[in-house]
Design a protein that fits this description.
The protein has four helices and no strands. It is about 80% helix and about 0% strand. It has one domain. It has about 130 residues and is mainly α. It has helices at about 1-30, 35-60, 70-75, 85-130.
Length: about 130
């Protein structure tokens, strides 16, 4: 079970890293206006959080044999999954992947809230300094 969880985390974190790179690039491009930059970053992270939630919702209905997690487990340390009956292997992978997707979505949601709070504080600071 720990191997499946580690491989699921690897797969999810790889995708989230590319999304974080895109968010960071947009925020740097908008750095001339810090409030706009933080607000845009928060909105983009909220979209990422929502997309992870939708992916978690879709996991039980997906064929996981066409997923990155399955390809990571095919020949790697989680090869024991292939010795299980297909229905049991799918249920185990789906439950683990869904749980890990929701865990990552929760953390990204917290990051989005932190960026929104920073944007609000910077906007308040601008108002008070006028």
């Amino acid at each position: 079970m720990d191997v499946i969880q580690a491989m699921a985390d690897l797969s999810i974190r790889r995708a989230c890293a590319f999304a974080a790179l895109a968010v960071a690039c947009v925020m740097v491009a908008l750095s001339f206006d810090p409030v706009l930059s933080f607000r845009t970053g928060a909105e983009l992270l909220a979209v990422l959080c929502l997309s992870l939630g939708i992916a978690a919702w879709r996991v039980p209905r997906r064929n996981l044999r066409h997923s990155e997690l399955w390809s990571l487990l095919r020949d790697g340390p989680g090869a024991f999954v292939h010795r299980m009956p297909p229905a049991q292997a799918h249920a185990l992978l789906a439950a683990t992947l869904r749980q890990r997707l929701l865990w990552h979505a929760e953390r990204i949601g917290f990051a989005a809230l932190a960026l929104w709070a920073m944007a609000a504080l910077l906007a308040l600071g601008k108002l008070l300094l006028r």
